[in-house]
Amino acid sequence: MTEPSRAPKFDFDFHGAALDSVFDDYDEMLRECPVSWSDRYGGFWTLSRYDDIHAAEHDWETFSVAPSMILPTFGTDRPLIPLDIDPPALTPYRQLLLPFFTATKMDALIPRTRQVARELLGDFEGQDIVDVSAFCRLLPAMVFGEYCGFPMDDAAQFDQWVEDIVFARTDDEAVARAAADDVYDYFRGLIAARRRDPGTDLISALLAADHAGQPLDDEEMLDISYLLFVAGLETTAGTIRAGLWYLGQHADELAAVAKDASLIPAATEEFLRVLSPVQAMARTLKRDVEIDNITMREGERVVLAFGAANRDPDHFACPHEVQLDRAPNRHISFGIGAHRCLGSNLARREVNTALQEFLGRFPRFELAEPAPWHGIGPLRIRLLP
User: Fold this and answer.
1) Is residue 131 within a helix (H) or strand (E), and if so which, with residue range?
2) Looking at per-residue confidence, does 264 or 17 come out higher?
3) Residues with Cβ < 8 Å from 310, sequence gap 6 or more?
4) Is there a cis peptide before residue 67, judged by omega within 30 degrees of 0?
5) What is the pTM of this model?
6) In whole angstroms, what is the distance from residue 194 CA to residue 150 CA?
7) In a domain, 24, yes or no
């Protein structure tokens, strides 16, 4: 029997400036090499088709999240609970955390989200050109940070840590690791303080929660807190940014959603599909796998390119077009299966509310200068009368 081909090489990257051209990459990958190999970040396979990624997400016995879904690392070699744990060990952690992220609980945060949005937008009144990047980042940081119990007096430090961990890691891993060490030290102190003096926040509630018949220990609390911190403060910000970035270049669609706020939830889903802040996540093979006569070996890393799957023409008509009323819209930006994003209910509500409040106050605007849809750099918008 002939040994299957190892695969075509494709220099795929899904971080930093590479995102400027990543959608062209997806088009080529889906058309020419839906399974490919990249030498970046120690080497990894990429799956780009919706069906292949859907199958991998449901086959945790083959496509393991351990040692980490994150490639490259978020600055730590510790498992981020529950992100980096496979079933069945995952199940008790999901059962513990899910009640804190139900639709009903997240609905209760909408009034505070609206209040924060209005306070932040008040700073833009009377200005011609504004940088909305701070609005995009501060709103979820304040709402989710307060819910978790992160002291907002430290918000500037949180922002710097997120920048170092999420964005600087691809250029200088040492920066990410130093920031991760600082974050863990910070949470050691915060967890100890909440044990002494519990509050009404999520950290305090988790310390008192029953995890398979016993409380979480400090190490588990540290890893959960780190994940909440890194994931909860940046991904939602990226979707708000992407939505404003797109609307600032499409006056007719901006006018439509500004006139009718009921269109915003569907628009949010389309921004998540087309401009998701999480373009890919990694797995590690626990056995050899063959797809398209290409053999991937046990122990090798595999990147599931959610952003490519969200543009798969076999599942989405006119996949590269932004259709703000697209229905159905079965994007996989929150993942699928056992590791579907715990915070999806909150993320949707934060993005919807942010866009509602922004468009309610500033229904006409345009990009003041070219800027990427992603990242943490300035996004300058000209507010029109």
Assistant:
1) strand 129-131
2) 264
3) 50, 273, 274, 276, 316, 319, 331, 332, 333
4) yes
5) 0.95
6) 11
7) yes
